[in-house]
Design brief:
Shape: globular
CATH class of the largest domain: Alpha Beta
Number of strands: 24
Oligomer: single chain
Bound molecules: shikimate-3-phosphate
Number of domains: 2
Strand order of the largest sheet: 22-23-1-24
CATH superfamily of the largest domain: Enolpyruvate transferase domain
Helix content: 25-40%
């Protein structure tokens, strides 16, 4: 994959895109299949490096992962006891989900696992998962007393406890659910706010003892997972880039097919509609406990708004910030401190990249204020991904909405979640090159 890309702005986007599988669901399905006794087949698996890391880590734990064609894997687990002590370090790459979720899986096993990642992952907070796993009886350590990776886990003999988490996190909750399935007694997870619930939906659909007591409280008992077949719905966070592009590039009208319609993941569509975009959501049934939708978005002139980050609007904030840059009037993004501990400090990196569009941007500790109406500078900007896939794709949307040929440096970061993004953009009529 090239380390830079050029995009010519102003070409209307029209047509249909079928999104690659949801990254969050793909990680979870792969780990669930590894815990199951039998062979599971997962289709439309998320294509990027993050999920590839999870698969590689599962292989290192003794699970059989066989390629079954494009976007399709066959995973054969032999129950939790079939997992074995890895001989090397488990490389989680850039993937926070891999590291945190596998820490929970490994915490149930009576052997040593060492989890490491790239520079970005090594800077991200891990105490949020290390502390709760220790409370269940696992021996977990990491750099700086367990605050950062590499993590060292020697698990086994877990007991269920009640966790009151300080940060709402789908990754941490998932880690504790996979640990809880291997623990004696009841594991209860209470979050300060709801987080994405794919793990609970999938495991419930597979008959595992996981219960959503209320949107902030999950209970897990010891139990197994049955093998399954699943076609992963399209990634709603990846769809967000095209939804915003369709909303901001004049003359655009795009249909995003087969997208995961979990209400906790598509909140960004409400924001786009509130800003004035024409957004229609068509129900397309259900798969493994998750709604599936087609999303239709057409361009309109947008107005600024106030966006409060919550479970459904986190990974989409970089691209919503681009919508804000092309809207009339200011947009305020609030309650978004978690942006600082993503693949980059997204408050800082967004402020830097949006400023290249000629908008006024104020970075706050927990959000941003974006002045609106990008000035469409005479010189098309050169953007920088900062090694962050979502900043790279948000910049691509800004480039498509601008004028002239913009360049994005560090484009290879996109391989983490959506290696085919530029091809799909071109298919819709975006001018790449
Ligand atoms: C994810 C949860 C969110 C999200 C991340 C994936 C998941 O992170 O930002 O991209 O798959 O559970 P947190 O768990 O840190 O909230």
């Amino acid at each position: 994959m090239s380390d830079r890309i050029g995009i010519r702005g102003g070409a209307p986007l029209t047509g249909t895109v079928r999104l690659p599988g949801c990254k969050g669901v793909s990680h979870r399905a792969a780990v669930a299949a590894a815990l199951a006794d039998g062979t599971s087949e997962i289709a439309n698996l998320a294509p990027g490096q993050d999920v590839a890391c999870t698969l590689a880590v599962l292989r290192a734990l003794g699970v059989t992962v066989a390629d079954a064609g494009p976007g399709r894997v066959r995973i054969t687990g032999r129950g939790p006891d079939g997992l074995g002590e890895p001989t090397g370090v488990l490389d989680c790459g850039n993937s926070g989900t891999t590291m945190r979720v596998v820490a929970g899986l490994a915490a149930g096993r009576p052997f040593l696992s060492v989890l490491a990642g790239d520079d970005s992952l090594t800077r991200r907070p891990m105490a949020r998962v290390v502390g709760p796993l220790r409370a269940m009886g696992a021996h977990v350590d990491g750099r700086d007393g367990g605050r950062f990776a590499p993590l060292v886990v020697r698990g086994g003999g877990l007991r269920g406890v009640r966790h009151e988490l300080e940060v709402a996190s789908g990754q941490v909750k998932t880690a504790l659910v996979f640990a809880g399935l291997q623990a004696d007694g009841v594991t209860e997870i209470v979050e300060p706010a709801p987080s994405r619930d794919h793990t609970e939906r999938l495991l419930r659909a597979l008959g595992a003892p996981v219960e959503t007591v209320d949107p902030r409280t999950t209970q897990v008992r010891a139990g197994g997972v049955t093998a399954f077949d699943l076609e992963v719905p399209g990634d709603p966070s990846s769809a967000a880039f095209f939804a915003v592009a369709a909303a901001v590039v004049p003359g655009s009208h795009v249909v995003l097919e087969g997208v995961l319609g979990n209400p906790g993941r598509i909140g960004y569509l409400d924001v786009l509609a509130e800003m004035g975009a024409a957004v229609t959501v068509h129900d397309r049934g259900e798969r493994a406990g998750e709604p599936v939708v087609d999303v239709e978005v057409a361009a309109r002139s947008l107005r600024g708004t106030r966006i409060r980050s919550h479970e459904g609007i986190v990974d989409e904030l970089p691209v919503l910030a681009v919508a804000a840059a092309f809207a009339d009037g200011p947009t305020e993004i609030v309650d978004a401190a978690e942006l600082r501990v993503k693949e980059s400090d997204r408050i800082t990196t967004l402020a830097t990249e949006l400023a290249r569009l000629g908008v006024a941007v104020e970075a706050r500790p927990d959000g941003l204020v974006i002045g609106g109406r990008a000035a469409r500078p005479a010189e098309a900007p050169v953007f920088e991904s900062h090694g962050d896939h979502r900043i790279a794709m948000a910049a691509a949307v800004a480039a498509a909405a601008g004028t002239g040929r913009s360049e994005i440096r560090g484009w290879d970061a996109v391989a983490v979640s959506y290696p085919g993004f530029d091809a799909d953009l071109a298919r819709l009529g975006g001018v790449v090159g």
